[in-house]
Amino acid sequence: MRLTTTTNVSVDGVMQGLGRDDEDRRGGFVRGGWVIPLTGTEEMDHINEVYGGATAFLFGRQTYEIFARSWGAVPEMMASPIGVALNGRPKYVVSTSLTDPTWAGTSVVAGDIAAAIRELKAQQDGELVVPGSGFLVRWLLANGLVDQLDLLIYPVIIGQGTRLFSDSGPDIALELVSSRTTSRGITIQTYRTAGRPEYARATADPNV
């Protein structure tokens, strides 16, 4: 399977507290609920397509728990295209402490996580989609396990909260697969990872 991360981020890279003001208040975050007022039909069509095309889903613990009590428990959310995809396909959650997940169709990934994910990717064709899960995404990138990044970049600066990319991490070249801007000014970018970036080198003669 191709491992694709799909992430909603602000212009300043924040990915925390998308849905409601009380969704994720870790670190004193008080600006939650910023995605929904900006989301329209075009963005939802794209998200529905990404989730609908998933063969399986991979989560970090925090995102998994948020999704389990919303898409996995609220009837109207379960009946939506996203909910149908999430509830009808295998879900894997990376955790060292979760032992008995209650969301049907969930398996816990523990132990040698990198080896387990490589094995999971090799089992079949299709898309292994990682929704949100910032800490996991950063770990996957650092371990060379991400094949594709799907980014929805919203025209807003949040100014606080967890960013998708940390101040220090791996350097990764990206190849643009597709790019478009919705009528609400949200850019939808899909990139394929392409090894290390190239860097310009200084010449011996500073005048050259």
Please provide a brief summary of the model.
With 208 residues, the protein is α/β, with parallel strands linked by helices. The protein is built from 6 helices and 8 strands, in the order βαβαααββαβαβββ. Helix content is 25%, strand content 24%.
Separation of the first and last Cα atoms: 47 Å
Radius of gyration over all CA atoms, rounded:
18 Å
Low-confidence stretches: none
CATH topology: Dihydrofolate Reductase, subunit A
- Count of beta strands: 8
- Report the portion of residues in β strands: 15-25%
Q: Numbering strands along the chain, what is their spatial order in the largest sheet?
A: 4-3-2-5-1-6-8-7
Q: How many helical stretches?
A: 6
Mean pLDDT across residues: 92
The CATH architecture can be given as 3-Layer(aba) Sandwich
Q: What do we call the CATH homologous superfamily?
A: Dihydrofolate Reductase, subunit A
Report on the biggest sheet. Answer: 8 strands, mixed
> Tell me, what's the shape?
globular
What is the structural class?
alpha/beta
The percent of residues in helical segments reads 25-40%
Our count of domains comes out at 1
Task: Identify the CATH class.
Answer: Alpha Beta
Order of helices and strands: EHEHHHEEHEHEEE
Structure commentary:
With 208 residues, the chain is an alpha/beta fold. The protein has one domain (2-162, 182-190): Dihydrofolate Reductase, subunit A, CATH 3.40.430. The protein is built from 6 helices and 8 strands. It has an 8-stranded mixed β-sheet, sandwiched between helices. Helix 1 packs parallel to helix 4. The longest helix has 12 residues, at 41-52. The N and C termini lie far apart (47 Å).
